[in-house]
Amino acid sequence: MDAGSVTARPSSKMVWAGRILSGLVVVSLFALNTMGLVNKAESLKHFVTYGYPESAFIPISIVFFVCILVYAIPRTAIFGAILLTGYFGGATATHVRAGEPYFFPIIFGVLVWLGIFLRDDKLRSLVPLRR
């Protein structure tokens, strides 16, 4: 490994900021999906408006829960972030197609990766930020 690619150990504050940010993202996404299932009639109305069949509502909600769970487990967090990136890409495309504001899925996608970036030195070594 060459000296230019070695990154410094993250500060404790940076790691904790990443953990807190990731935790907030997990709680927010879990609450969002749970509220969608609790208010199924209202959620289903919007879901169908976007052009999805009613029969896909529960499977997509389950996939979302699985993605959140995989992201919440530290050993699989990067894989979970990849899965959530795909999910948010689909959400962004759906909102663009519907002519609605599409920045929320993009913001959540950025927060997912920022949380891991702050707490994982291996990821920071792959994606180094220069000063």
How would you characterize the overall build of this protein?
This protein is mainly α and 131 residues long. The chain has one domain. Helices cover 75% and strands 0% of the residues. The protein is built from 6 helices and no strands. It has helices spanning 12-38, 40-49, 57-72, 77-98, 103-119, 121-126. α1 packs across α2, α1 (12-38) packs antiparallel against α3 and α4 packs antiparallel against α5. It is elongated.
Helix segment tally: 6
How are helices and strands ordered from N to C? HHHHHH
Strand content: under 5%
Compute the separation of the termini in Å. 20 Å
- Low-confidence regions: none
Oligomeric status of the shown chains?
single chain
- Say how many strands there are: 0
- Largest sheet features: none
Q: Give the mean pLDDT.
A: 90
Structural class: mainly alpha
How would you describe the shape? elongated
Total discrete domains: 1
Annotate the secondary structure layout.
Elements: H1 12-38, H2 40-49, H3 57-72, H4 77-98, H5 103-119, H6 121-126
